[in-house]
Amino acid sequence: MSNSDFYAKNQRNEGNHAAAFGCSVMELRSLMELRGTEAVVKLQEDYGGVEGLCKRLKTSPTEGLAGAQTDLDKRKEIFGKNLIPPKKPKTFLQLVWEALQDVTLIILEIAALISLGLSFYHPPGETGGEYEGEADAGWIEGAAILLSVVCVVLVTAFNDWSKEKQFRGLQSRIEQEQKFQVVRGSQVIQLPVADIVVGDIAQIKYGDLLPADGVLIQGNDLKIDESSLTGESDHVKKSADKDPMLLSGTHVMEGSGRMVVTAVGVNSQTGIIFTLLGAGVEEEEKKEKKENNSKKTKQDGAAAMEMQPLKSAEGGEADEKERKKVSAPKKEKSVLQGKLTKLAVQIGKAGLLMSAITVIILVLYFAIDNFVMQKHPWMPECTPIYIQYFVKFFIIGVTVLVVAVPEGLPLAVTISLAYSVKKMMKDNNLVRHLDACETMGNATAICSDKTGTLTTNRMTAVQLYVGDVHYKEIPDPGVLPPKSLDLLVNAISINSAYTTKILPPDKEGGLPKQVGNKTECGLLGLVLELKRDYQPIRNQIPEEKLYKVYTFNSVRKSMSTVIKLPDGSFRMYSKGASEIVLKKCSHILNEVGEPRVFRPRDKDEMVKKVIEPMACDGLRTICVAYRDFSSNPEPNWDDENNILNDLTAICVVGIEDPVRPEVPDAIQKCQRAGITVRMVTGDNINTARAIAIKCGIIHPGEDFLCIDGKEFNRRIRNEKGEVEQERIDKVWPKLRVLARSSPTDKHTLVKGIIDSTMADQRQVVAVTGDGTNDGPALKKADVGFAMGIAGTDVAKEASDIILTDDNFSSIVKAVMWGRNVYDSISKFLQFQLTVNVVAVIVAFTGACITQDSPLKAVQMLWVNLIMDTFASLALATEPPTESLLKRKPYGRNKPLISSTMTKNILGHGVYQLIIIFTLLFVGEQIFDIDSGRNAPLHSPPSEHYTIIFNTFVMMQLFNEINARKIHGERNVFDGIFRNPIFCSIVFGTFAVQIVIVQFGGKPFSCQPLDLEKWMWCVFLGLGELVWGQVIATIPNSRLRFLRRAGQLTQKDELPEEDVNEENEEIDHAERELRRGQILWFRGLNRIQTQIRVVNAFRSSLYEGLEKPDSRTSIHNFMTHPEFRIEDSTPNIPLIDDTDDDSARRRMKYSSQPSSPNKNNNAIDSGINLTIDTSKSAASSSPASPLHSLETSL
């Protein structure tokens, strides 16, 4: 589309657009759609290059915008703001409507409506009499049930609503955290991303996630990862003359530069995609209600898009809906929630069975009693009364069901997680994925960075080797050779990012503020200590005049800058890790500052005499060097190997980064809690070991490994250079420090520990990272921690939790909270199951023996409310205690209900049943009141049944206090006042109960009780606490059978549960469907095994033919691109096949069986599988196993 078209289009708004700025939104949008040379040409022709564009946007390429508020507002008005409008939250009414979809509630509503209708129906020809009074009250029960349903719905909706609100709050917290460096009024300032406007000059550097589209003004060695937009993983080189287009949501992988912002918010490339997506999601929403409780900003959105394909590939779900649901957070249901949903379904099934039996028994009993025993004829005029009886029976059945289904379980998890997340904010943990919080409780290993996490990340130069002298502290500048000093000061000032500065302290007497790269800050600090200043040198050679910059990256481990000297020759300054830079030095400056030859044996001596002693003091050693080039002929700057060679060393600096004072204590806590802490760092091995000893990661005299990346790779790779799991298994259990490690080493280590099958429990690994290169490891880990201060945006994107204070001790807090979540859920389960068991048995037996449930429908609903909603609130908000860190982590496969809990559930159940049945059958004699049994329809409530109901609730209340401890502790009141929510709920429930009993009357089927009877009820309730102590004395070892009981709930769950780790929990119906597929895969597997046997014979006959390559390890997937997907599918055989070899082959052959397949059609998936195989197999020659597999299919 040519320019003139645009002008024609925009003629109408020409008044305000072009008058204010020389280009309109649409022009800029179309400009940003071009790439490479096209873009350069267009810029030149239409705008007169980048400078022309800046002029039109009324901004200066060096000084930026003036920053006047009116100007900024005007820009926001014309070009839009830099944010993508979030999706509208669900309204309260929508949430109410969703809560009403609950099946049990619907059944109850229908039953209540029938009951209401019948109570208003008077059979013709019947006149008054004693029946009138009862019939009048008939509607009350129906109305009361409806009312309680309304209560339950409102409470659920309110919980959902507050959860949503918290999520949004969290999201906006994350957004405000993200800032970007912008030049305004020649000052570099940090701005929240949302405040960036078109025309801003943004400074970009390694590790940034670009917040808006822009055109590069000047760049050094800039490489961008545009995979989030294009899907191409290769890094794209950007330069002002070849490809200056920078797009929002892409990552800077190397280099630095400045760009002028040309499009923000919805007009940026990511924004455009998002608006399209938004429309797509809306359509999708109408078709199916998907939960989406988070808004994504531009920043988060770009990331979501980037993570989605990865995640879905990992989970093996090529499900379209998943793809479209990009804007929803991916991992919502966690392992724990999966277990709970499963448990709830199992309990629900049992409840359904019980309720059905109850109804059948009641109906049969009634029919037999009336029509067979008493030989009443069925009279047409009596039909409504009979129907009323049947409806009453039906309602009793439904009530049993309502009590049996623990809908409080998912609620408890949500409340507990939401509460924890909110509190973890105070402990400097910003949780991005809810379930990370609970996974952290099971962590068995933490791989931590050194710099900034274990140390303070305030670098100070403390030792210096220059002119053949090793100074143990920074010397007086007079002592140093003047030539060396000049070179040193220049080398440090010029060869560092110009964004790195040392600013005066914020408050008097504080430490100076370090801005930018901390190692460079340490070196600049050295310049200042040598009574020199770096700013004048930088002013003399501004960033534009730097001839060529080789930025620091994890491969080079050094940074070099080339400048043109006045005489036309070139000088390159270099700095980097000392052992790496010294290898490239051929000369060194002597005591008078003249270069002398630096032989290999001098190098060895230097390493021994200077570098190792520095490193053993825990210092990071940096070598500064330079090299001169003649201008004629000009060197080939792209030939890095020759350029970065033949250097002259100036000095070696020892930089100290002190250990954070609270770290040793935190690490000790981790070790006590059964968590191994490993240090993975890019530093020198001696430095790393010294710091590890200071932190307490290693204790002298223990059997442990401290190795560097080279040695690590030598140990874990076979002759072909492939990583082998068996080899990793020999290394990781003892490994404590991995030094000079590359990002891939970190990823390999994390993957190796997670995939390891040595221990009976799968290891749960947490990883901390701050750099862009830590992304893969952070994603691979079970929980990734990113640094909030030092972390790059890429790292934050890949992480689950952001440490807002970059401190290791915050990780320990996260472990504590995670364990607390697990314990809270267990407490709630223990309480809930007791109530369920008792209520169901009471309703069932009561109904069978006395034709009427001792606990009425409305009473059951009240019990359900206290035990579900309130109890989950009370027990899920227990604050964590230090004692949580004194036990080992629970394994992944530990059943939810431990043997102690089973003991408690059964023990308390027995007590409650004894009391209630005693009251039911002999209560009238004990209290000397009328019996409430066998009362006719619609009779007024009896004191007898009120006592039963009241006692039941009292016992639940006191049992709630018992439920606070699940490990069999004696003191159940321990720390009870630290939890105000718990106290208020217990007292609140008690108060409401008094009101219900005294004034509930007909709707609650309650008769007011006098004080004496109340005392008895409370006394029987208090018995729970005494009984709790009795149960605690019974040792678990006595109760062998309980062990089995504790496991029962999960017997069939474990294999499947593991499969579900990566996916969202799969619905039950789907799981049934999956059974068919499992059988299908099992059959396929048998075929494969047979084929393999045949092939084994064949290969021994024809050695020349291709052998099935089954011996290689799972890690080969890393080498075949097609298998990158499996990289993270948990390798759990779905098929009962013990031969691990065949499991491996299966992983190779079929990318699907190893991960749950979401195709409902088993055959379909089988076909997919074949296609997959033929694509990815090494060959499909007639002799290969694949060929025969295809024919057999």
Automatic annotation (TrEMBL):
GO annotation (BP), single: regulation of cytosolic calcium ion concentration
Domain Cation-transporting P-type ATPase N-terminal: 46-120
Biased composition (Basic and acidic residues): 284-299, 318-330
Residue ranges crossing the lipid bilayer per the database entry: 95-118, 138-158, 350-368, 393-419, 828-849, 905-923, 981-1001, 1013-1034
GO MF term list: ATP binding; ATP hydrolysis activity; calmodulin binding; metal ion binding; P-type calcium transporter activity; PDZ domain binding
Catalytic activity: Ca(2+)(in) + ATP + H2O = Ca(2+)(out) + ADP + phosphate + H(+)
Biased composition (Low complexity): 1150-1161, 1174-1185
Keywords carried by this UniProt record: ATP-binding, Calcium, Calcium transport, Calmodulin-binding, Cell membrane, Ion transport, Magnesium, Membrane, Metal-binding, Nucleotide-binding, Phosphoprotein, Translocase, Transmembrane, Transmembrane helix, Transport
Compartment(s): Cell membrane; Membrane
InterPro entries the UniProt entry points to: ATP_Ca_trans_C, ATPase_P-typ_cation-transptr_C, ATPase_P-typ_cation-transptr_N, ATPase_P-typ_cyto_dom_N, ATPase_P-typ_P_site, ATPase_P-typ_TM_dom_sf, ATPase_P-typ_transduc_dom_A_sf, ATPase_P-type_domA
UniProt-listed Pfam families: ATP_Ca_trans_C, Cation_ATPase, Cation_ATPase_C, Cation_ATPase_N, E1-E2_ATPase, Hydrolase_3
GO cellular component: glutamatergic synapse; postsynaptic density membrane
Enzyme nomenclature, EC number: 7.2.2.10
Region (Disordered): 284-330, 1125-1193
Membrane association type: Multi-pass membrane protein
Function: Catalyzes the hydrolysis of ATP coupled with the transport of calcium.
Family: Belongs to the cation transport ATPase (P-type) (TC 3.A.3) family. Type IIB subfamily.
The protein, known as: Calcium-transporting ATPase
Species of origin: Oreochromis niloticus (Nile tilapia)
